[in-house]
């Protein structure tokens, strides 16, 4: 008998990341009319912390709303749910939980979705990585963080696409980023465990 294929939400979520990476790679030359600003500005976040997401355009209007696609497998509006509070074009999650992991974007009054970003919420080790694409020629710095350490930076191993690229360091610096640096990154600590994976995208200097 053929057994049905069972996938977890995280398997499905990483498929979403791959799809989003394809979209960013092929259409990153198109400037969206709005930017989704995340605070703290990183793609991975601890549980039980505050997270702010703001849709900002050149006119500073309030005509945008924050939406997300999570393990519920449907789009949710910040203004019409219990997961966040909406003020103007800013959505605030007062205390993050792992089910806040998903794809977030800004929706216009006409119902179009812009500027999707991946947000991962994890209770253990996280990778401090940029939420938006990195520009070619810039430097990229990654940290491995643990909520219950002081300071939170861990001495850890860093991986790209499953291969070890730097070991036992508190930060990994990539000088002069190029397209070849695109990929899935994560960090691993011998005692604290490993972070989720984050896709790092690279855009051209003229974009």
Automatic annotation (TrEMBL):
SUPFAM superfamilies, alphabetized: Immunoglobulin (SSF48726)
GO CC annotation terms, alphabetical: external side of plasma membrane
A molecular-function term among this protein's GO annotations: transmembrane signaling receptor activity
Keyword Signal among UniProt keywords: yes
A Gene Ontology biological process term: cell surface receptor signaling pathway
UniProtKB keywords: Disulfide bond, Membrane, Signal, Transmembrane, Transmembrane helix
Protein name in UniProt: Ig-like domain-containing protein
Organism: Cyprinus carpio (Common carp)
Source taxonomy: Eukaryota, Metazoa, Chordata, Craniata, Vertebrata
